[in-house]
């Protein structure tokens, strides 16, 4: 290679070596045109110099572009720092605003939840319409009393409406357990004051049921007024309902109520439904037997009593009912056997002992009756029915003081028992102790102001004391309380006779004779009281009335005798 050309190549290499570090390879690749491949020139050196000059110009342009890029990068870096500061400040402000909005939203939501929960609880207790009206009334009162501004009241009303509408479903779905808990708490608080009354009502109902089951078949112990009122309430509630919808207790109560009103067909319907449900139980069989006995179908009643005893051989109460039926059929020996067997199965049963002793006393076996009652009292020294039964036996034997002592012992256990007070007053009246009788009958009527027996007893005391006008008042009150019966009519006629009001007495006696169904009633309620009172008081025209009443009783007795003879033939 010639020296001149070697020098030119070296210079070109130096120029290129100085330009390359100023630009990145990529920039050179993008902006610099592709250099032609150097070859040994065939032309003169002027062409080469021109090419070198072009390259120099291009290299300068590239340097300027690189400088502009560097300046732009510097400016961008400066702007980026400023933008970062502004963005940070703005983000912090947005974070604070978001936190404030979140806190406000949570507070509002909590308020909505509490208000909505309260509204839903009230909705469950009182109903939506009532709560809506109540809340509206609260807002109107607040507005009218100027406790809140009009704008606030309107806003509150809208908010409550919105809460009641929007929060109801969400609260029910998301807070069911909380709603239940709050509802139970509210109900418990509401029932706190009522709990004792409810428990007392349940206890009274259970006691009434127990007492009814003890006495409903015992014709010597009528249902108490309280139990009768309860039966009336239950009967009213079940009268229009299907038998299939009634519980066993409701059927039982309805049966008792229907029987007490002599509605035996209805009572039998309830009893047979109980028997259909429980075909082999002693209670169902004895209930139906009792109703059949009242309807006069004694053979069917006896058959059901026997089945009841087979189902419950240790049931002394059913044995007592069956014995009562047998005694009413004039079969006292069989009744005595039934009661004796009951005492073997249930030794010391007070009810069976009492009934057995009464049966023995009626069969003129007072010593055996007294022995049984003493044995019963040794086991149950404070049993009022046993004490009163023993007192009645002593009374019948004329042992007044002992009878009075037993009655007083019974009254110590049950001082407010109307039936017991009535027995004591009856005994004192028979003894002629009117002052004591008045005391006892006053206590009776204080406990049972509507007691017909108490009114009748007070009227008889007034008759014995010669207070005929007061006796008339008592008997008329008894008739107002009770259906027209011959007993009160005979007593009223006697009070009118004592006052010399013969025409009125005649009319009342005629009504009593019409109601009397047998001569024994005429004798015991009409003839004997008039004869006894005329012996102690001056009764105008007592004799003509006695003759009239005795004459009215004899035809009835003759007719009864003729019917008895005809039936025997």
From TrEMBL:
Transmembrane region(s): 111-131
A Pfam family it matches: TPR_19
Signal peptide: 1-29
One MF annotation (Gene Ontology) recorded for this entry: mannosyltransferase activity
Residue stretches of each TPR repeat: 282-315, 384-417
Record's keyword annotation contains Coiled coil: yes
UniProt KW keywords: Coiled coil, Membrane, Signal, TPR repeat, Transmembrane, Transmembrane helix
Coiled-coil spans in chain: 45-86, 157-215
Bias kind Acidic residues: ranges: 559-569
Record region (Disordered): 550-569
Any one of the GO BP annotations: protein O-linked glycosylation via mannose
Record bears the keyword Signal: yes
Record-linked PANTHER family: PROTEIN O-MANNOSYL-TRANSFERASE TMTC2
Name of the molecule in the record: Flp pilus assembly protein TadD, contains TPR repeats
Upper classification of the organism: Bacteria, Pseudomonadati, Pseudomonadota, Gammaproteobacteria, Thiohalorhabdales
């Amino acid at each position: 290679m010639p020296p001149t050309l070697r020098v030119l190549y070296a210079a070109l290499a130096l120029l290129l070596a100085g330009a390359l570090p100023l630009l990145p390879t990529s920039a050179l690749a993008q902006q610099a045109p592709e250099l032609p491949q150097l070859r040994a020139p065939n032309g003169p050196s002027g062409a080469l110099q021109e090419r070198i000059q072009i390259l120099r110009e291009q290299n300068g342009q590239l340097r300027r572009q690189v400088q502009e890029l560097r300046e732009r990068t510097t400016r961008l870096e400066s702007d980026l720092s400023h933008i970062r500061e502004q963005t940070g400040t703005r983000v912090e402000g947005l974070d604070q605003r978001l936190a404030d909005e979140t806190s406000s939203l949570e507070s509002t939501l909590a308020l909505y939840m509490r208000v909505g929960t309260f509204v839903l609880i009230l909705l469950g207790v009182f109903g939506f319409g009532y709560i809506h009206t109540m809340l509206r009334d609260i807002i109107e009162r607040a507005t009218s009393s100027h406790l809140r501004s009009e704008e606030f009241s309107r806003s509150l009303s809208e908010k409550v409406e919105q809460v009641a509408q929007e929060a109801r479903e969400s609260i029910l779905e998301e807070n069911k357990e909380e709603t239940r808990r709050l509802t139970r708490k509210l109900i418990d608080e509401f029932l706190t004051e009522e709990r004792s009354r409810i428990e007392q009502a349940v206890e009274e109902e259970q006691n009434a049921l127990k007492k009814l089951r003890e006495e409903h078949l015992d014709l010597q112990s009528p249902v108490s007024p309280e139990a009768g009122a309860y039966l009336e309430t239950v009967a009213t509630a079940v009268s229009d309902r299907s038998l299939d919808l009634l519980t066993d207790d409701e059927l039982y109560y309805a049966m008792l109520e229907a029987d007490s009103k002599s509605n035996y067909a209805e009572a039998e319907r309830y009893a047979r439904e109980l028997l259909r449900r429980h075909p082999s139980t002693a209670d169902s069989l004895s209930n139906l037997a009792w109703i059949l006995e009242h309807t006069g179908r004694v053979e069917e009643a006896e058959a059901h009593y026997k089945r009841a005893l087979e189902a419950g051989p240790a049931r002394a109460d059913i044995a007592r009912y069956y014995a009562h039926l047998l005694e009413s059929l004039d079969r006292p020996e069989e009744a005595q056997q039934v009661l004796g067997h009951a005492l073997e199965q249930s030794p010391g049963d007070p009810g069976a002992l009492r009934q057995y002793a009464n049966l023995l006393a009626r069969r003129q076996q007072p010593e055996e009756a007294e022995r049984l009652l003493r044995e019963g009292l040794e086991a149950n020294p404070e049993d009022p029915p046993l004490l009163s039964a023993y007192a009645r036996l002593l009374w019948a034997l004329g042992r007044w003081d002992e009878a009075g002592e037993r009655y007083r012992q019974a009254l110590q256990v049950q001082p407010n028992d109307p039936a017991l007070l009535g027995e004591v007053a009856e005994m004192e009246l028979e003894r002629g102790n009117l002052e004591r009788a008045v005391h006892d009958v006053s206590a009776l009527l204080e406990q049972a102001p509507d007691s017909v027996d108490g009114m009748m007893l007070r009227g008889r005391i007034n008759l014995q004391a010669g207070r005929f006008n007061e006796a008339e008042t008592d008997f008329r009150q008894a008739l107002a309380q009770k259906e027209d019966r011959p007993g009160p009519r005979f007593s009223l006629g006697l009070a009118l006779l004592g006052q010399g009001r013969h025409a009125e007495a005649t009319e009342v006696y005629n009504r009593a004779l019409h109601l009397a169904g047998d001569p024994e009633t005429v004798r015991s309620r009409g003839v004997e009281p008039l004869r006894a009172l005329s012996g102690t008081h001056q009764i105008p025209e007592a004799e003509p009335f006695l003759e009239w009443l005795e004459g009215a009783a004899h035809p009835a007795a003759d007719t009864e005798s003729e019917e008895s003879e005809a039936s025997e033939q």
